[in-house]
Structure formats: structure tokens, C-alpha cells
Amino acid sequence: MTVLRRSTHRAPSRQLEAAGSITRARILAAATEVFVRRGIEAGTIREITKAAGVNVAAVNYHFGSREALLRATLAEVAGPMNAARLQALDQEARAHAPHAPPLPAIVDALVRPLIETPRWQDGTRPLIRLIQQLRALPHQMANQLMAEQFDAVAHRFIAALHAALPHLSRAEIVWRYEFARGAVVHVLVDCDPESGRLAALSGGACRTGDQDELLCQATRFVAAGFSAPGR
After folding, report:
1. What is the pTM of this model?
2. Which residue numbers in the chain have pLDDT < 70?
3. Domains of the chain, start order
């Protein structure tokens, strides 16, 4: 009688894959910490490998280059926020079909995921820090990274806003979209505990740690901007 033996060669392969996934995640977590705390330009691969407990070869194996690591880091941090934006916009589109979603619903889908992006224990929003740093570096790599992560989402919202506000030209919608996006990011930077600028400026009247209050103020401001008369 022939006895069939179960192949065991897949188990080590799966173990290696799992170990590789863990190592990659550790590198991404360390890269996020270093790039956020030290800056995109100042943060080094040596600092990242030390924080992750790996060697340079591991970074090269999983990412290939410093630019690729930065790209993966931004995708790791921004991806969930952009996915939440699109999911919320799609839900509103289905709820109001065949008509366009109303302006307040579109604004909420745009702003809420940005404000509710994960924070570290000290209150830092890593995504906001990374956006701030990339915007402060007006060169081709930074522009490309921002375009890769945010342009497709921006076009979806611009189209939805244009459908909701047909009396405005597409150029006006794009202007207002960029003013809205920039204003919210700017305020979130000032809400960063290490900045504390908004709290100091208001004498503590602005409750920067209250996400519900922050969302209310931001959505009202953005909606008012889009509601202004066209030229």
C-alpha cells in the first residue's frame, strides 16, 4: 500500500512570509516615527534601522530605496484616511441617488476623516506632520508623492462638489477645494500639542483637543466657503 505523505515545504515558506511581513511593518512604524519627529529631510536610514531593530539590508530588501520607503510610509499613513473619505462619499452618493449629494454631506466626507485621522498618545497627528513637511519641500519628489496619494481623491471630490454646485465653474471649485484643504491642515498643525498656537492665541477658548468641536468649526467654515457666490 502506498502511503501519501503531506508535504511540509509550505510551512517554512509561510513562516518566512509572516516574518517578512512583521519586519516590514516594524520598518514602516520606525520610519513614520523618524520622519514625523525628525523631518523627512533630516531623518536618516540609520535612525530608522536602529528604531526598527533591523539592518540596512532589510530596508533595501523590503523597499529598495529611501524614496520608496518614504512613499510606502506616506501610503501607510494616508491610505486609511483617503479610503474613509471615498467610502463616505460613495455612501452619500448612494443615499441621494439619482441626485448629487448635498454640500454639507460632501464637506463632512471630506473633512471628518482628516480630523479623525489617528493620533499618537501625545496628540500628534502623524499624517498632518508628513503633509506639512512635504508641502514645505517644493521639489519634484515631494510633489509626486503628494499627487500619488491625494490627486485621485481630490478629483472625486471636485466632481461631486461641481455636481452639487453647478453654478460655479470648475476653476472656482478647484480654488475653493484647495483653500478648504489648506485651511483645515493649517488649523490641525496649530492644534498639535507641540505647537499649541491656537490654544495660546485664543487664551484657551478654542478647545483644540475636542474633536467634535473641531469638526463642527471646520465643516461650517468649509461649507460657507463653497456656498459663497461665484464670480
Report:
1. 0.87
2. 1-20
3. 8-64 (1.10.10.60), 65-227 (1.10.357.10)
